[in-house]
Design brief:
CATH architecture: 3-Layer(aba) Sandwich
Oligomer: single chain
Active site: 79 (proton acceptor)
Order of helices and strands: EHEHHEHHEHHEH
GO cellular component, one term: cytoplasm
CATH superfamily: P-loop containing nucleotide triphosphate hydrolases
Bound molecules: adenosine-5'-diphosphate, ligand LCKSPGMD
GO molecular function: ATP binding; deoxynucleoside kinase activity
Strand content: 5-15%
Pfam families: dNK
Number of helices: 8
Strand order of the largest sheet: 2-3-1-4-5
Binding site for ATP: 9-17, 141-145
Mean pLDDT: 93
């Protein structure tokens, strides 16, 4: 059965990490957001006002590309949903990093591209797995990952940016209704370092997929690597 799972959550929540763990466990394909090979991301952090619009278009384009493959392919896990794109741009626009013309153009482009998804065999994911984290956890993980331009030492105003991002995520998740959804407590479960925590998180997701009828009741992982 074709099942598409999408991860969501703020920067550093653990989406990419869980995408890898989950796709391996389910025997499906991981799809990653373009980050380390994204030439616009460092420019954005250096000069957000100048590059917010370009970065947004860059992400929209790469995400659309991976969604097209993921929704036509078999079983997949994506490390961020396209539904979060507007959240990021709205927030950047609200803090004055985009002109009205850029905002209008972006929304038109987004709607236009989203309507293309109507033609796909599947328009929406089967399940959204949201990783919920506090500011402290988010910051710790951003530090652990160590991308220079995401550190508060690089730009102290990132503290406000990150706190604001967390505030935007709450209503976004509550409103999200394109598919069934579930939350993983990213503060509680250290699914990178603790084998026990990792298993607990996987069990929660598998239980949800079984409840939805996407996995058979007697499904067991094929752990042969
Ligand atoms: N649940 C977790 N417990 C401990 N460390 C984590 C957890 N999730 C992610 N990390 C670590 O935090 C950093 C950011 O994780 P990543 O998966 O890149 O986040 P995202 O894709 O959401 O930005 C990485 O260094 C990763 O090893
Ligand atoms: N301004 C925007 N920035 C975005 C968007 N999507 C991702 N990002 C940034 C945030 C991180 O610095 C980096 C990678 O995100 P992770 O959550 O995977 O760490 O890219 C966006 O739509 N707009």
């Amino acid at each position: 059965m074709m099942t598409v799972i999408v991860l969501s959550g703020p920067i550093g929540a653990g989406k990419s990490s869980l995408t890898g763990i989950l796709s391996k466990y389910l025997g499906t394909n991981p799809f990653y957001e373009s980050v380390d090979d994204n030439p616009v991301l460092p420019l954005f952090y250096e000069n957000p006002k100048k590059y917010a619009f370009l970065l947004q278009v860059y992400f929209l384009n790469t995400r659309f590309q991976s969604i097209k493959s993921a929704l036509t392919d078999d079983n997949n896990v994506l490390d961020r949903s396209i539904y979060e794109d507007a959240l990021f741009f709205q927030m950047n626009a609200d803090i004055g990093r985009a002109t009205k013309e850029e905002v209008d153009t972006y929304y038109e482009l987004l709607h236009n591209m989203m309507s293309e998804l109507d033609r796909m065999p599947k328009k929406n994911p089967d399940l959204l797995v949201h990783i919920d984290v506090s500011y402290d956890t988010m910051l710790k993980r951003i530090q652990k990952r160590g991308r220079n331009y995401e550190q508060l030492s690089y730009d102290p105003t990132l503290e406000d940016y990150y706190k604001r991002l967390l505030r935007y995520y709450k209503p976004w998740y509550e409103k999200y209704d394109y598919s069934p959804k579930m939350t993983i407590d990213g503060d509680k479960f250290d699914f990178m370092a603790s084998e026990e925590d990792r298993q607990e998180v996987l069990n929660q997701i598998v239980a949800k997929l079984k409840e939805m009828g996407k996995l058979d009741e007697d499904w067991k992982p094929n752990l042969v690597k």
